C-alpha cells in the first residue's frame, strides 16, 4: 500500500536496545556488602554528587550530540484527549488519539532473562519505545536571500545540533546549523492552565516557531507543515477521504475527514477529523500534496483546489505554509495548530457511551482550531505564565522537572473524560480499569493542579457510582467492584484534601452523610475496637492480607483523624469524638504492638492455620504511609516521631541501593523496573533473615517485593522530605530521575504495569513537602515551611481558586515573605510561616499591596501563626507581604 511505502521512507527511528551507565554516584562497593537479603547499609554516595543535587543547578538540556534525544516523548496534547508525543528533535509521534486503548503505548513482547515479558511486565522499560507514527506528518523550513535557498526538515538528521528543553507543559527545541542563515527555536504545547481543566483539555497541539535572521541581509522564510488524512486510518474501503480548505477567524488550514459509504463506519473509534492550520495572514493551504514529492512540493505548489476527495485506500496529504519577510537581525514568530476530534470510545464503562468530553465543546477539528485561534493570546500567555511561575524557583531545576513530569499522565490515554464530564483512568495505559482507589490515592498532582476534577470524581464516583449505601464501602474500581481497605482509607484522605482545595464548605456539606458512612466502614473493620483493622484486607499489592498490618492500619489512623476534622467542621461532635477516640487507641496499639524496635511490621492473624502472603517481620516500603498522607493534608504528626524516623531510617538502610543489580541477581521474581547499574528503593527486604519472611502460603504477588516501583518510591521520598530527611528524600527522587534520563528512556513515562502509571503522580507530593505547603480554602488558611534553603526560598503554589508564587527570606532574627497571586483570587484569613528556630517573634507587619492589615500573632515551636482581623482576598496581580 502507498501509505506503508511512504512511512517507511519518512526517516522515523526504528526500535532497538540501548544501555548507558551515567556517571557514578556511589561506590566502590565490596561484594560482601550486598549479601544478607538487603541493600548495602553504607551507600558510599559521592559527597560532591549529593551537594550538586541540592543546589539550584542549571535547566536540563538534552542534546543530539550526546545521543539523548531518541527516547523523548513529552505529551503535548490536551489532558484527557489521548496521547501525542513531542520527540527530542521536534517531531510529533505516537498519536494515540483514536480511542483504541492499547495495553501500553506501543504493545510489545520481548525476551528478557529467559522469559517473555509484555507491556504490563516492563517490556517498555527494558526496551524503551522509539519514535514512530501511524501516519505521516512533518514540518519544514525554507530560507532564501534572493540568490541562495536552503530547505530543512525539522528533524535531527537535518541539523548539526538539536537541543531539547522539557519544561512541561512547554517543550522547547533549538536547531543549530552553520549553513542556515536563521536560528530556529520551536515551542510545542497544548494550552495548560492550572484550575482550568476545560481549557487544558483541548485536543490540539500548538507548534510555535521563533525565527531570527542571523545575517545583515533581508531574508524570505517559509515554514510549512503537512498532515496525512488519518480519519479511519486503517480502512481501505467503505468511503472517501476528504481534505477541505478552511478559514476560521484568524487561522487557515486543511480539515481532514472521511465520508463513509455505510453509517456503521461513522461510529468507529477512528472515525473523526483532524486539522492542520496556521495562525494569521500570509498563509496558503493545500488539500492534495503529492506523496512522492512531499514535503518539498509544499514550497512549489500554488493553492490549487479547495477540496480533494480520494478513495479510502489512497493516501491523502494536506498542508499549510506561512511566509515571513525578515530584515537584518529581525525576529518573527509563527504558530501552527494540529487538532483532532474522534468522538467514540470502545470502553465498556458507564458514561463512556457519551463519547469524549471534548466533543461536547467542539463539533469537529476545525472548530477546535477556531476556538484556539480566537482566544490564542489568553491561552498561550497563561500557559507560559504557569511554566514561568513553576520554574521561577529556588528549588533545583532537576527536582522541578521530576516532581512535575508525571502530571503528563493526564495528557495520555491513561486518563479519560467522558461526555458526561466524568473523569476516568486506567492504572497505566490500557491496563487495570476504574480509576482504582488503591493506585490513584498515591497520586498527588491532579488534586493540586485541577482540583475540580478530583472533587467531581469523589462526588460522582466514589460517593455515588462506587458507593454501597448499606455499608459505606467504596468500590475500588468504580461501579460494581469490591473493597480495598487501603484504597478506602486513602479515598477518605483524598476527600479531606479535596475539601481543603475548595473555596467553601459546600463540597463537604453536600456529601457529609456518605463521607461519614465511608469512615464508619473502616471503623467497622476494627472488630475489637483496638484501633487496628483486622480480617480480610484487600490492597494495592493485589491480594487480601490478614492480621494487624502497620501500613494499612496507619492509613486508617490518618483517615480517622481526617474524619475527626471534617466532623468538627460539620458540627457532628459525636462522630468527631468517636474518630478521635478510635485514633488514640489505634495509635497506642500500633506503636506498642507493631514496632519491633527498628521498624513497623505485620502480626499474623492467629485464627488462620497458615500465614497468607504478607510482609510480617520484613521492612516494607509503605509501613508508615498513614503518616506520609498526614503531612500532605496538614494533619501533623499521627505517629510518634522517634519511631517514624526509625522506620524511615530502616527503609533507607535496608531498601535503598545505588545499584539494584546484586540484589535482583540474588532475588528472582519481580518485573524489571530498575536494571543492574541503576539505583532504587526495593519494595520489601528481609534484614533480620526471618524464615519464610512473606508467609507460609505465598502467592504470585510475592514477586512485587523485589521490584522498584516509582509511585511507592516517591511516596517514601516525600515523607522523608517532610520529616527533615531532605538529603535522603532527594537522593531517592534523583535516583528515579536518573533511571529516566533521556539517554536511557523517556523522561515522561514512569512505568509500572504499563506506561504512564498513575501512581507515579505521587512525585508531586515531594514538591508539596519540600515547600512545607498547607492550605484550607474554606477556612482561608495557607502556610509554608520550606525544607530546602529556607533562608532564601521561592516556589509556585496552587489553591482552590488561585496560583502564584511564594518567596521568603530569613536571617539573624529577620523574616520576610511575599505571596503573589498570578491567576485567580486567594481568600486569606490565617497565614503560617516558619522563622528561624531562634527567632522570637515580637510583632508582624502584613501588607496587601500598600495597605496595612491588622493581625495578631501566635508562635509555637517553630511556627508563627498570623491571624488577620478580617478575611482578605488577594486578586490576580496583587501581593501580600509579611515582615516579622
Automatic annotation (TrEMBL):
Keywords: Signal. Residues 486-764 form the Glycosyl-hydrolase family 116 catalytic region domain. Residues 73-377 form the Glycosyl-hydrolase family 116 N-terminal domain. SUPFAM superfamilies: Six-hairpin glycosidases (SSF48208). This is Beta-Glucocerebrosidase 2 N terminal. It comes from Ginsengibacter hankyongi. One of its GO terms (molecular function) is beta-glucosidase activity. InterPro entries: 6-hairpin_glycosidase_sf, 6hp_glycosidase-like_sf, GH116_catalytic, GH116_N, Non-lysos_glucosylceramidase. Residues 1-26 form the signal peptide. Transmembrane segments: none annotated. The keyword Signal applies. GO terms for biological process: carbohydrate metabolic process.
Amino acid at each position: 500500500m502507498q501509505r506503508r511505502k511512504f512511512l517507511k521512507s519518512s526517516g522515523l527511528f526504528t526500535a532497538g536496545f540501548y544501555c548507558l551507565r551515567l556517571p557514578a554516584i556511589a561506590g566502590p562497593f565490596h561484594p560482601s556488602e550486598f549479601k544478607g537479603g538487603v541493600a548495602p547499609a553504607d551507600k558510599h554516595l559521592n559527597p560532591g554528587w549529593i551537594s550538586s543535587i541540592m543546589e539550584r543547578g542549571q535547566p536540563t538540556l538534552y542534546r543530539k550530540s550526546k545521543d539523548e534525544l531518541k527516547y523523548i516523548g513529552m505529551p503535548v496534547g490536551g489532558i484527557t484527549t489521548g496521547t501525542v508525543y513531542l520527540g527530542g528533535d521536534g517531531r510529533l509521534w505516537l498519536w494515540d488519539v483514536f480511542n483504541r486503548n492499547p495495553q501500553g503505548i506501543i504493545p510489545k513482547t520481548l525476551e528478557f532473562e529467559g522469559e517473555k515479558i509484555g507491556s504490563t511486565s516492563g517490556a517498555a522499560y527494558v526496551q524503551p519505545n522509539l519514535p514512530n507514527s501511524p501516519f505521516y506528518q512533518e514540518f519544514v523550513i525554507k530560507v532564501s536571500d534572493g540568490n541562495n535557498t536552503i530547505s530543512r526538515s525539522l528533524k535531527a538528521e537535518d541539523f548539526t545540533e538539536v537541543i531539547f528543553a522539557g519544561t512541561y507543559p512547554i517543550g522547547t527545541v533549538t536547531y543549530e546549523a552553520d549553513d542556515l542563515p536563521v536560528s530556529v527555536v520551536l515551542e510545542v504545547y497544548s494550552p495548560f492552565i492550572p484550575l482550568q481543566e476545560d481549557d487544558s483539555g483541548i485536543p490540539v497541539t500548538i507548534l510555535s516557531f521563533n525565527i531570527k535572521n542571523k545575517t545583515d541581509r533581508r531574508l524570505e522564510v517559509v515554514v510549512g507543515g503537512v498532515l496525512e488524512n488519518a480519519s479511519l486510518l486503517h480502512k481501505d474501503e467503505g468511503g472517501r477521504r476528504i481534505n477541505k480548505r478552511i478559514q476560521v477567524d484568524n487561522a487557515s488550514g486543511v480539515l481532514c475527514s472521511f465520508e463513509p459509504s455505510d453509517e456503521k463506519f461513522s461510529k468507529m473509534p477512528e472515525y473523526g477529523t483532524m486539522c492542520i492550520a496556521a495562525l494569521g495572514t500570509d498563509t496558503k493551504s493545500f488539500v492534495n500534496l503529492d506523496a512522492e514529492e512531499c514535503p518539498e512540493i509544499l514550497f512549489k505548489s500554488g493553492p490549487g483546489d479547495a477540496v480533494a476527495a480520494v478513495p479510502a485506500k489512497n493516501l491523502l496529504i494536506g498542508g499549510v505554509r506561512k511566509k515571513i519577510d525578515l530584515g537584518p537581525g529581525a525576529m518573527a514568530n509563527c504558530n501552527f495548530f494540529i487538532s483532532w476530534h474522534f468522538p467514540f470510545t470502545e470502553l465498556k464503562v458507564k458514561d463512556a457511551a457519551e463519547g469524549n468530553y471534548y466533543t461536547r465543546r467542539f463539533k469537529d477539528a476545525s472548530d477546535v482550531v477556531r476556538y484556539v485561534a480566537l482566544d490564542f493570546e489568553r491561552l498561550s500567555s497563561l500557559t507560559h505564565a504557569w511554566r514561568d511561575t513553576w520554574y521561577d524557583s529556588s528549588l533545583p531545576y532537576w527536582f522541578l522537572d521530576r516532581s512535575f513530569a508525571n502530571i503528563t499522565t493526564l495528557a495520555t490515554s491513561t486518563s479519560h473524560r467522558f461526555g458526561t464530564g466524568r473523569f476516568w483512568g486506567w492504572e497505566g495505559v490500557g491496563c487495570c480499569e476504574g480509576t482504582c482507589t488503591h493506585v490513584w490515592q498515591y497520586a498527588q498532582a491532579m488534586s493540586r493542579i485541577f482540583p475540580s476534577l478530583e472533587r467531581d470524581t469523589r462526588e460522582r464516583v466514589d460517593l455515588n457510582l462506587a458507593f454501597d449505601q448499606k455499608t459505606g464501602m467504596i468500590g475500588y474500581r468504580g461501579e460494581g467492584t469490591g473493597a480495598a481497605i487501603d484504597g478506602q482509607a486513602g479515598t477518605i484522605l483524598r476527600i479531606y484534601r479535596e475539601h481543603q482545595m475548595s473555596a467553601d464548605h459546600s463540597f463537604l456539606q453536600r456529601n457529609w452523610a456518605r463521607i461519614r458512612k465511608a469512615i464508619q466502614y473502616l471503623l467497622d473493620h476494627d472488630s475489637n475496637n483496638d484501633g487496628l483493622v483486622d480480617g480480610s484486607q484487600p490492597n494495592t499489592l493485589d491480594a487480601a492480607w490478614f492480621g494487624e498490618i502497620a501500613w494499612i492500619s496507619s492509613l486508617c489512623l490518618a483517615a480517622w483523624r481526617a474524619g475527626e476534622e471534617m466532623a468538627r467542621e460539620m458540627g457532628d461532635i459525636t462522630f468527631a469524638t468517636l474518630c478521635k477516640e478510635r485514633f488514640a487507641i489505634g495509635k497506642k496499639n500500633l506503636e506498642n504492638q507493631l514496632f519491633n524496635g527498628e521498624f513497623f511490621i505485620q502480626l499474623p492473624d492467629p485464627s488462620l492455620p497458615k500465614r497468607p502472603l504478607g510482609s510480617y517481620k520484613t521492612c516494607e516500603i509503605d509501613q508508615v504511609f498513614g503518616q506520609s498522607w498526614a503531612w500532605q493534608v496538614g494533619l501533623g504528626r499521627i505517629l510518634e516521631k522517634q519511631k517514624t524516623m526509625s522506620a524511615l531510617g530502616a527503609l533507607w538502610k535496608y531498601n535503598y541501593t545505588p545499584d539494584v543489580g546484586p540484589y535482583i541477581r540474588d532475588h528472582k521474581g519481580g518485573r524489571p523496573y530498575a536494571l543492574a547499574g541503576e539505583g532504587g528503593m526495593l519494595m520489601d527486604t528481609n534484614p533480620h533473615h526471618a524464615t519464610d519472611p512473606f508467609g507460609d502460603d505465598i502467592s504470585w504477588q510475592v514477586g512485587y517485593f523485589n521490584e522498584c516501583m516509582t509511585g511507592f518510591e516517591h511516596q517514601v521520598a516525600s515523607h522523608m522530605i517532610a520529616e527533615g530527611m531532605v538529603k535522603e528524600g532527594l537522593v531517592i527522587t534523583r535516583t528515579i530521575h536518573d533511571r529516566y534520563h533521556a539517554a536511557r528512556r523517556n523522561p515522561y513515562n514512569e512505568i509500572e504495569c504499563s506506561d504512564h502509571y498513575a501512581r507515579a503522580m505521587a512525585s508531586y507530593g515531594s514538591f508539596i513537602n519540600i515547600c512545607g505547603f498547607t492550605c484550607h480554602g474554606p477556612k482561608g488558611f495557607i502556610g509554608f515551611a520550606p525544607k530546602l534553603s529556607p533562608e532564601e526560598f521561592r516556589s509556585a503554589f496552587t489553591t482552590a481558586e488561585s496560583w502564584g508564587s511564594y518567596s521568603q527570606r530569613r536571617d539573624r532574627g529577620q523574616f520576610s515573605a511575599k505571596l503573589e497571586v498570578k491567576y485567580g483570587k486567594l481568600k486569606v484569613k490565617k497565614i503560617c510561616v516558619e522563622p528561624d528556630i531562634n527567632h522570637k517573634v515580637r510583632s508582624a507587619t502584613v501588607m496587601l499591596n500598600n495597605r496595612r492589615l491588622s493581625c495578631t500573632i501566635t508562635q509555637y515551636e517553630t511556627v508563627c501563626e498570623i491571624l488577620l482581623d478580617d478575611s482578605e482576598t488577594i486578586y490576580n496581580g496583587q501581593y501580600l507581604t509579611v515582615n516579622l
